[in-house]
Design goal:
disordered C terminus, AB_hydrolase_1, transmembrane, Epox_hydrolase-like, Rossmann fold, 8-stranded mixed β-sheet, alpha/beta, single chain, epoxide hydrolase activity, Epoxide hydrolase 4, about 350 residues
Length: about 350
């Protein structure tokens, strides 16, 4: 961007952020007035690890030292088999891949990580430590630290944005890749500001640029925002997050300051989520699958199909009835689509057809 464009974009982003903050603050004040006996800032103390997080059915826990940080991971399956690496999004951690860790461990060595700043992984304090270059390099070092040269990379949400950057800069390290609910575009900012409806759907991305307030919002009323995200405001989930699952997420984010590193992913990168043109590698031979839920609610559908026009060997698939957290909302359908894709690994670039429910 030129100087004038940069100033205009910055003004737009922070104006949108302030509008979102004003609306959220008004809603919070109304909630306090309607429920004066509830302490909106109170977060329940959680000292006991939920049983589901230590369930051996999901795998064995371990740690990897990489690029100055220690990464926590959960592994399942035979280490001699091809590596399938899972990268979570926001606000998640390794547990988001519980259904896939078990499903694919018969044919792959499945490994789900807590990205830096999340879960039991190290949480650097500097905003600079969450720049996209560090996050992409983490993936490279994780693969190498696990003793592999290549992997099948599976990623969701902001993890998908990291994965797209990895696809564009390290295609030689991929056997194949599956990305969920994180569309690729050469210009993320252009997509997110393409029309008023899209701006409204992306309000949280603007809001996250502000200091302090996003963390306050997520901690309010014992992190009720997590419940709203994973279950939705209406009971439309295909495979609803259980109370035990929800408690696992609350446990992961219960400590003071736990939301700041994840939100710093957005603050550190803004809307510049695509790699510089100088870093792009033209030949991407690895087959890819991009999936999104029909009720994702974060992006206009027209943008979701566009990735095929930029990347060869990519198939785009909609999962009917599913929400943004598609791998948890309809794990059976998602696992089936992944397995079908892995059987062929030669997707045709054609007009995508929605998955049947």
């Amino acid at each position: 961007m030129g100087i004038i464009q940069t100033i205009a974009a910055t003004t737009f982003v922070y104006s949108a952020a302030c509008v979102a903050a004003a609306l959220i603050f008004a809603r919070l004040c109304l909630s306090i007035l309607l429920h004066p006996t509830r302490l909106f800032w109170k977060v329940k103390r959680r000292d006991t690890v939920p049983a589901c997080l230590t369930d051996p059915a999901y795998g064995i826990h371990g740690y990897l030292p990489i690029e100055g940080v220690k990464i926590h991971y959960v592994e399942k399956g035979d280490r001699s088999k091809p590596l399938m690496l899972f990268i979570h999004g926001f606000p998640e951690f390794w547990y988001s891949w519980r259904h896939q860790l078990k499903e694919f461990s018969k044919d792959y060595w499945t490994v789900a990580v807590d990205m830096r700043g999340y879960g039991d992984s190290d949480k650097p304090a500097a905003l600079e430590d969450y720049k996209m270059a560090h996050l992409v390099n983490d993936i490279k070092e994780i693969i190498e630290a696990l003793g592999h040269e290549t992997c099948t990379l599976v990623a969701h949400d902001f993890g998908g944005a990291i994965a797209w950057n990895f696809v564009m800069t390290h295609p030689e390290m991929l056997d194949s890749y599956i990305i969920l609910d994180a569309p690729y575009s050469p210009s993320n900012f252009r997509i997110l500001t393409s029309n008023l409806f899209q701006v409204l759907m992306s309000w949280d991305l603007f809001y996250f640029q502000l200091p302090y307030l996003p963390e306050l919002t997520f901690r309010a009323y014992d992190m009720v925002r997590l419940k709203h995200l994973f279950r939705g405001s209406t009971p439309t989930s295909l495979s609803p997050i259980t109370d035990e699952d929800l408690e696992a997420y609350k446990y992961a984010f219960a400590k003071s300051g736990a939301f700041t590193p994840p939100i710093n992913y957005f603050r550190a990168n803004g809307f510049s989520l695509s790699p510089p043109k100088s870093k792009l590698k033209k030949d991407i031979e690895a087959p890819g699958l991009y999936m999104f839920g029909e009720h994702d609610g974060h992006l206009v559908f027209d943008h979701l199909w566009a990735a095929q026009s930029y990347i060869k060997n990519l198939k785009v698939q909609m999962v009917k009835g599913a929400n943004h957290y598609v791998q948890q909302d309809d794990p059976e359908k998602v696992n089936g689509l992944i397995r079908d894709f892995l059987k062929t690994k030669k997707p045709k670039v054609e007009k995508p057809v929605a998955a049947s429910s």
